[in-house]
Design a protein that fits this description.
It is a single chain. By secondary structure, the protein is of the alpha/beta class. It has one domain: Purple Acid Phosphatase, chain A, domain 2 (4-Layer Sandwich), CATH 3.60.21. The protein is built from 5 helices and 12 strands. The strands form 3 sheets. It has a 5-stranded mixed β-sheet with strand order 5-4-1-11-12. Strands 6-7-8-10-9 form a 5-stranded mixed β-sheet, covered by helices on one side. Strands 2-3 form a two-stranded antiparallel sheet. Helix 2 packs parallel to helix 4. It is globular, with a radius of gyration of 18 Å. The termini are far apart.
Length: 284
């Protein structure tokens, strides 16, 4: 494991290509010469996306070098008979992801940061991550030992005062039967990391990062060397038809945002934009 900057910014679940996912103000050029313009929800999301990168990230990183991790589901793909796609042409979706994330990656790389891509759900990122692999390669993601520019998980040592500070990121995590059980799966994930580290006679990761649920949820345990945390990241997709049938998400406003993990800090930093963008009007 190679240690680079002491800070890593984690975002996930951008779902570019979905009408509820991220889309730049200029919209998307379609394959046959047509054009898609972002809707009202996407325009609101873009304001928060820019605030996240232009204000929040520089503030908490103190404008110091930082890595970036895309923790799965960068594009939406053509899945489950979905009817809310901008285009079912995967190249259009990949191009959108490059336009959305590329400027932030280039800015980080210019100052010594690195870019990592963890593969998400195969329904979104493609079988074996094939549909996000091209984006990871184009944006200069760090390859793994097999030469893949996207990977199933990332174990990364974060430079800093704690030599045992390791981040372990994967996309998937168990769901929840309701808001009162939000912390159950992250707590199980953290304990499983402890158990597997003990079996290997090694230190467990300081930061366990998961995504997939589009809902921010942190849990932590105190250890002999400091805090160990499992953090589930929010996403960047407004509610779709699938959200309206999932426990917890059915009644919750969508959550947008990301986290920053810093070696040596007492806290991890998060920014969550939690707004009712859809169905917010109360009928009289």
């Amino acid at each position: 494991m190679e240690a680079t900057p002491t800070r890593i910014v984690v975002i996930s679940d951008l779902h570019c290509g979905c009408q509820m996912g991220l889309c730049p103000p200029g919209g998307a050029k379609l394959d046959e010469g047509g054009h898609y313009n972002p809707n009202k929800i996407q325009r609101a999301m873009w304001v928060w996306w820019r605030e996240f990168w232009d204000k929040f990230v520089p503030e908490v990183t103190r404008k110091q070098p930082h890595d970036i991790l895309l923790n799965g589901d960068g594009i939406d793909n053509e899945h489950h008979g979905v009817k809310t796609l901008i285009s079912n042409n995967i190249e259009v979706q990949r191009r959108l992801l490059c336009e959305v994330l590329g400027p932030e990656v280039k800015r980080a790389q210019k100052h010594g940061g690195r870019f990592y891509v963890v593969r998400g759900t195969e329904a979104h990122d493609g079988g074996s991550g094939q549909d996000v692999e091209a984006v990871a390669r184009e944006l200069g993601a760090v390859p793994d030992d097999c030469g893949r520019f996207s990977r199933w998980d990332l174990r990364k040592r974060i430079a800093g005062p704690n030599k045992h500070c390791v981040l372990h990121a994967m996309h998937h995590i168990g769901g929840t039967g309701g808001s009162h059980y939000d912390s159950s799966a992250p707590k199980r994930e953290l304990i499983e990391e402890f158990i597997e580290a003990a079996r290997a006679a090694d230190y467990p990761p300081t930061f366990v990062v998961r995504s997939h649920r589009h809902r921010y949820c942190p849990v932590e345990e105190m250890t002999d060397w400091g805090r160990a945390r499992c953090i589930v990241t929010p996403g960047w997709q407004a509610k779709t038809g699938f959200s309206h049938k999932i426990a917890g998400a059915r009644v919750s406003p969508p959550q947008f945002g990301g986290i920053v993990c810093i070696n040596g800090e007492e806290e991890t930093y998060h920014r969550v934009y939690w707004k009712r963008l859809q169905g917010s009007r109360i009928e009289e």
